[in-house]
Input
Amino acid sequence: MPHDPLRTLLPSILPVDLENFLFNHLPGLFFLGVILGSLTGLLIGGVELALAGLLITGIPFLVASFYLMLRNDVSTYPIIRNVPKSVTSIRTFSIAYLVGISYLAIVPDRGYEFFILLTGMFLLAFLSTFQHYPERGIGYAIATLLISTYSVTLREPLFIGGTDILPHLSYTLHIVNTGTVIPDWVSNYANFPLYHIFGAIFIQISGRLPEKSYFIIIGAVVATTPLLIYGISSRITKNRRLSCQVSIVYATLPTVVYAGLYSITRTFAFIGFLLLLWIFLVENRYQNWAWSILLGVSVLFTLLVHQVSYLQILFVLVLLWGVSKAMTSGRPLITVFEILFFVTPFCAYWIYNAEGLIGRLIVRQVLGTSATPTSGGIDTSLPIFHIFEYLNTYLLGLFLLVGIVISFRSNNERIRIVALFTLICTPFIMYSPIHVINRLSAFRLDRLILLLSLFTALFVTLGMKDIIDQLSGIKYNYSMYFIVVLFSIFAFTSLLGGIYQDTAADSNKIGWQGPTEHLEAEEQAALEHTLLIPSGRQIRTDGISYKYLTSRLPMGEFTERQQTLYDIKTIRNPNDVMGEYLIRHEAREKRGELVLGYYGGDYIYEGTLNIGEHDRVYTSGDSAILHRVNASSMGKPASTTQ
Output
């Protein structure tokens, strides 16, 4: 065997029996980590940061630590095998599905009752995995993910606002109208157009309303990802039933539900990542040339669909290679050749075709962050979360940590490798000090969380099943109730919103903290009226309105002349609002939801804008277009009120 310096070095660093060491000592290390983390937060950010960390992350770590210390190491009850067929039948699920569709047709806002119904559908999917054909549950999960997605994306104006959906729709419509991708000056996505080409092709084929066609196909693609999760999980666990359960838990994760609701390029990059993992986990994959071709196609797809996800995927693959290299005596899950095969086209493409992107990203993400004014506002580092968000992160953290620790006793080497990998990634998956450092916002950890959702789902499932197993050992006859209660609470809180994504922020019936990402109809009407402002004028507004306007002016067609039609910028300093025209949303202002700063907004402002003297030239509910008296003396549109 050739000399391997890494293999020679590892024994001096790692314990001889790493898996047993982690299994036996992680519960105590979790407890110690909470203490050290609280002290670190106290030193760095004072009492506020320490308490925030303890409240958000400390609780699941402490509960997991005590549970693992008290856990009976010997399984006393095999988890339930039989569920009444009538409960999980296609007829039962179809009735629930029709009720959900009827609800959306009658009720304008998604209320708690709709999310309870979605939870029931996911529960039917999960219980179906205990039947003779567990794969039926995946079909239920896909159908439920579809109705969850379409309940937002097909109902305007809920799918627009603070997200990047509208710009991507504009780029797609530009391809439909002109047959060419967007110019370089419009966006960095001129070099990464595959997502928009895909959407444009479907719009052309369907011949339906562009927005509806766009969201129908994008939502359908995202909803089918549980099939890929099943394929990858099967190659890791070698367990058909468990893989089905992992797929269903995956479909309920907040980051996955959010990816369906706001389906944009990073979601398709995630699909490319899943394809790569699926290929890498095939034994003897290069004995069949078809796998090599599929690998090449997947690499190119991932490269051309999104700007920066490639870097995060590379980070995940390298880390997975390092962990598998350290823990196995055979070939690691991913080889160095495969990583190089992944890196080479990336470097070549960025150097020869997208060379200006790196500089623009540095200016936008790093320099823009450092230049952001926060006087009079609240730093988004320490947000206040909804009670359901706290509950979801507690359950997710508890299940995740328990699942990781018990996996170190598994006879399956792949599960042990992935367990250590996921343990290392826990600071990214769970809310941690990494997420409150503003400078790290350039790395977009929310995208990394999506990439890690497969591993999150695997160990959340294992942890949940272990807790149910332990509870069933105490109350044998209550095992069915335990699984219904635990899964339902987790799924319900996920559908309402996790720490990172407010998956139900479109609902006016749920009191969320922080700015809503969608636009109300009155807000949209005011923004649409901005189209009547004479060209060449200065327009200032908040970050959410900025994203809308820069996509709507013009919509679907980009030319050099149209580039300079308007001077639209976000308000940077709330005490010095410059510009001829100001678009103001007083309802958001009163709720402390204004997003201000550079490049569509960098911080949340809770105060009142100092707008100076002005004339109100258009009103739509609590939204208005204002013309500043002390600005340019150019003419203004006729005043109207709606």
Observations:
- The radius of gyration is 26 Å.
- Confidence is low (pLDDT under 50) at residues 1-16, 367-381, 632-642.
- The longest strand covers residues 614-620.
